[in-house]
Amino acid sequence: MTRAMQTDRQGPDPGRDSHVRPRVLVVDDSAMQRRVLAATLSRWDYDVTEAESAEAALTICQTAPPDIVISDWMMPGMSGPEFCRVFRDMPKAQYGYFILLTSKADKVDVALGLGSGADDFLTKPVNSGELRARLTAGERIHDMHRELTLKNRVIEETLGELQGLYDSIDADLVEAKKLQQSLIRERRVDFGPAQVSQILKSANRVGGDLVGHYRVGPDRIAIFSLDVSGHGISSALMTARLAGFLSSSVPNQNIGLISRGGAFHAAVPPDRIAAQLNDIVLRDLGSTHYFTLALAEVDFRSGHVRLVQAGHPHPMIQRSTGGIDVIGGGGFPVGLVEQAQFDLVEDRLNPGDRLLLMSDGVTECLDESGTMMTEEEVIRLIADLRGSEGTGFLESLVWSLSQRRGEARFDDDISAILLEYPG
């Protein structure tokens, strides 16, 4: 620069926090111009540092990054635009506002300066009012960047905490899934006159489906399939509670059994079990969830079946001849309507027949286009698996559904229990 800056007698900006002195780096090969700028900036309560060249300024920027840089354009060695380009590439915690001082007024030169990363220009000789306005704008942008950086840091810390909570919850859900799967102790159980196979695949970590069985007497067994409304943790907790009411390992807690003092228990009819569960859910559990249920009691000696269907998909009997009978009348879900009536359905298994109870994750499985299976398609699918037995039948059923969907992941829990009756 060749002319001194025009100065004024104004003091510090009254709108600025007096405890925060913005750091300004003045870069100019002219000692006179640096002193004039530094004196004015100090009077305005800026923390001023001087550098006689761009190279010296870069060294200062590495140790004490400035909030605002005021640099001459024409300097020996590295020019102002070149210095600005290097300054922009330096890693910094805060944004540095860069002002170029120049006598150049050509638009090409202005574009060059902006392209190097400069925020603003001042033409020489510098007018103090114009400089003050440029500095105020620089402080405003610097403060906004600092505030944004602080908010981003808070967001990052919050996201880190949330990730930690998510990881903790996810780990708990993994363990919960193991516990839920443990409710199905054995995939296949041989009762002599009949064999029972079961499968449970949750759509998420945990789900609301449950299948199971319990011995009623030396010649009878009960099998059930239930599906709690909703998905996730609350549904899974409801399922765990219901598992206790139909427990095979703790008969005294099973509401479907009446103790007679011996090794086996007398059975409560399936329709009465549904009614008791309905009362328990509405009266005692205080839950907003309801559930669908299919529960069948099978007599090994005669093949006689007593069954209740409470809003669950229709049970199916695949006859030894290959035909499939759809049984049940639908009914109300359990825990939805007070004093709901549940109808008892009776049928008979002949040697070679098998009884299948399944959740709506099977019967309402969507294909790739989002179309739900029809009852005819479900029947045809089961008929196609006639040659499969036990767990092989159930695994093939799930595989066929995944082929229909085009992926192994399901939108709903998949569960089923199969009773095969050789007779």
Please provide a written account of the structure:
- This protein is of the alpha+beta class.
- The protein folds into two domains: 129 residues, Response regulator (Rossmann fold); 239 residues, 4-Layer Sandwich (Phosphatase 2c, domain 1).
- Helices cover 37% and strands 24% of the residues.
- The protein contains ten helices and 18 strands.
- The chain has a six-stranded antiparallel sheet.
- It is rod-shaped, with a radius of gyration of 39 Å.
- Proportion of beta-strand residues: 15-25%
The side-by-side strand order for the widest beta sheet comes to 6-7-18-17-14-15
Low-confidence stretches: 1-9
Helix content: 25-40%
CATH architecture of the largest domain: 4-Layer Sandwich
* DSSP summary: helix tally: 10
- The figure for the number of domains is 2
- Gyration radius from CA atoms, angstroms: 39 Å
Mean pLDDT: 85
Q: How many beta-strand segments?
A: 18
- The third-level CATH topology of the largest domain is Phosphatase 2c, domain 1
Q: Going by CATH, what is the homologous superfamily of the largest domain?
A: PPM-type phosphatase domain
Largest sheet: 6 strands, antiparallel
Q: What is the CATH domain class of the largest domain?
A: Alpha Beta
